[in-house]
Amino acid sequence: MKIPKEFNLIWAQIDNRRKLYFGMGAAILSSVMVAFIPYIYGRLVDVAIKAGAQMKIVFELILLWLVISILSNLLGRYTDRYAFEMSTDVSNKLMVDLFNHLSNLPISFHKEKKTGKVTRRASRGIDQLGDFIERTIFSFLPAVLTFFVALVILFFVEWRLSLILLVSSLVYILMTIFYTKKIVKEQKLVNANWEKAYGELFDSVTNVHAVKSATAEDFEQKRNTRNFNFVGRIYKNWRFKWTKMSFWQQMIFAVAFIAVFVNGVMMLKAGTLTPGLLIMFVGYTSLLTSPLARLADQYRQAKTAIDTFRRAAKYYDIAPEKDLANARKFEIKGRVVFDNVSFTYKKGRREVLKNIFFEVEPGQTVALVGESGVGKTTIADLVGRYYLPQRGRIFIDGVDIKKIQLKSLRAQMALVPQEVILFNDTIENNIKYGSPNASEQQIIEAAKAANAHEFIETFPKKYEQLVGERGIKLSTGQKQRVAIARAILRDPKILILDEATSALDSVSEKLVQEALQKLIQNRTTFVIAHRLSTIQHADKIIVLEKGEIAEQGTHEELMLNPDGIYRNFWEMQTAIERRK
To answer: Which of 87, 117, 298, 356 could form a disulfide with 134 if both were Cys (CB 3.0 to 4.6 A apart)?
Structure first.
């Protein structure tokens, strides 16, 4: 029998398995003890009302009842505590493990999926699993054991009344399964639409600046209202089916209890049943109905938890980024060669890059120029091995990039993007992100080199100032300089500047450009830029058109071609600047 991979995921998170076995044993023992309590007080009644009853036996039965109750309660208390501890520990470890796995997935996964939907599915699956461990494994399953032990005892005591309880229990279980299948199916639909609704809601919250600048608050409200109203209708339908099932469950309980009680009274009158046995059966009826009453809810919860966790665990089926078997750590100097590289994001789609060949020497600055969508950022992503080319090879210092360990490669690289994303943390922690062992002095020196120290010192808490969600408390220029300070602190061998000054005012651009000039010294640098005035001093300019290299050379060399693409771009931008 093949063990489901989800079970292996859970099992791997349990450290103290001896404690688990003891907890399960305590739950089982407690359940068996509880099953004998109605038998004890039923016999106690018969002994007590019998003429010439021996009080010693009565007190012995009372003492036995008390001891079993205390022991079962103590074992139950231990089980409850351990169940909570185990569910918390497993959930926490799985949460960290799953989100660590997500962070190690290829960049293509994160570009294609909605963050809100992914996080909702992952967190919901693990939360549901925690409830399943605590409420089902350590609570409901022992209660089911109590049910079966009690039923066996009853058949030994009085089979006719026991048969009524057995038949009513079977009807109850079959009816519950019939309705619960429909309820679980509806629950899956609810979960899928919750994920969609929360995904779009999360998008609108994380992009609140774009929402406000587009005055799209009303649009977002209408969209979110539509999504949650749709989920609400499905949820109400799910709830209606649940209440309908609950009605029939209560009816079966009522009929079963009345049948047992009426037949018991008749048998008592006929002398075929003692008062103690009747009280025993009434007690067992309550004991049996308790797990049955929870059956539908527990079955739904278990099915939902398993299905929800399976949906979350499907992310484990997506292979993370990994090194080749012969990959090794490598000290980079900075020579980069693209050897006839071709690349497409998806098989069967058009090639984004075609037969790209160029060489970059250590310390050189290479500018990538072209219209949007021609593959500039794709080249930068290939250098960082976020993707692998379908054809051709990329070499760093003569070594195929696939043979360099990912962490070793990226630890020697830094990126300053157009849209800087900062964590909702202090300026200090944002600067040293990726360089956790940096000293305070090193952080300050990096900030000074990035022209960031001066504005940081104006804040009340200086380097301890919180920057807000995604750095919203800082201006675009300030965020860029924090990102540059972070890159300086990493001391990279290869640097990528992705339109780092495109959205800045003239003052901020001057400060950022000064910082960038310090940053690129003695580093192999790839600059993606639309504003050609920022890259005219590059050692090499590569002009891309339709995914191919149309031109390459220095600014002076490219300007010699009167019909060249680069010269045309330059003259257009110069004319626009003059009109300003």
So the answer is: 87
